[in-house]
Write a structure and sequence with these properties.
The chain contains three helices and two strands; from the N terminus they run E-E-H-H-H. It is mainly α. A hairpin with a 5-residue loop joins strand 1 and strand 2.
Length: 101
């Protein structure tokens, strides 16, 4: 079985897991790797979206509404008219604002 992996210099290498003797792979310190390998802070928007999707995995419509609310909290999108034609999201944003007060 072969897999592709990216090494610290960014090159893609092919690793044969069935080869004899087995090749040993070591992972570098993620904090020292550039780009994707860097440690991520807990406040990343992507992580917030992932959490919402997991919490509402059985209801994609509700997940979408909650993602819009979260994005509005971060970027104040409603004040710039991004949700002016979406009454459901506007109502959810107002409810979230009232809950946070």
């Amino acid at each position: 079985m072969e897999i592709l992996a990216r090494n610290l210099s960014g090159e893609i290498v092919k690793v044969d897991l069935a080869a004899k003797p087995a090749q040993h792979l070591t992972l570098g310190n993620p904090a020292s790797e550039p780009g994707v390998g860097q440690l991520e802070s807990a406040n990343l928007i992507r992580k917030d979206i992932e959490k919402i999707i997991r919490n509402f995995s059985g209801d994609p419509g509700q997940a979408a509404i909650q993602i819009c609310v979260m994005l509005d909290e971060h970027f104040d999108l409603a004040s710039n008219g991004f949700f002016e034609r979406d009454e459901v999201v506007e109502k959810a944003i107002l409810e979230a604002d009232q809950d946070s007060d």
